[in-house]
Write a structure and sequence with these properties.
Multidrug-efflux Transporter Regulator, Chain: A, Domain 2; Globin-like; 3 domains; two-stranded antiparallel ribbon; 12 helices; 2% strand
Length: 254
Amino acid sequence: MEYTVQRLGRLAGVSARTLRYYDEIGILKPARINSSGYRIYGGAEVDRLQQILFFRELGVGLERVKALMDDPAYDDVRALRTHREELLERKARLETLIASVDRTLAARQGGVTMSDEEKFAGLKDRLIVENEAKYGAEIRAKYGQEEVARSNEQLRGMSEAQYAEMNRLAEEVAASLAAAFATGDPTGEAAQRTADLHKQWLSYSWSSYSEEAHAGLAQMYVDDERFKAYYEKQPGMTAFLRDAIFAYTGRKQQ
């Protein structure tokens, strides 16, 4: 079956403007242009749009989606299976979080008792859900399903003291980065201290550390606007952190 922009937009729940934009950036081209100048989409384009929208729902940026789908090694069946796994994991995390909230409400209303461990588990599950919603798809694409699963399990297994220390380190990294950025030297003592603090912070959520992975993450901070927004308190601060980490790990710009 063939569709015009308007009909495909209604079918998929997206605007005609979005479909025209997808055409302009080359992520979804029509099958042909008819004699009246209208874009016409066929079955292959419908399938590709479905995949694009799955990726978008999982938070992957359009530039990354295009790169993935244009890769000659791209397998749409494997991608669908990955989408399904991620959605099932998200569903499980949300159900756990909902159960924790329900139990907390019941405890506040005097119906049940709730241990400190249970309260803390709910907070960690909330953090995992939030991180997955923001960054899960991109991290899984870069590091793989198993590595992300191990990281999440490590977070769940933290003691309350470890969790507090991880959050304290995050604040120290931010303060140290601001001070180092003022020096203008990513190879200087202040910047290298920041990079070391960043490594310590990562070690709470990473199952294992490697200089290569640390440098790769630093580059992702610059390349992905979602990550960049976290560190970019001043223009150029994220790139400064990347350069500091590159110097710390002895890696060249990737």
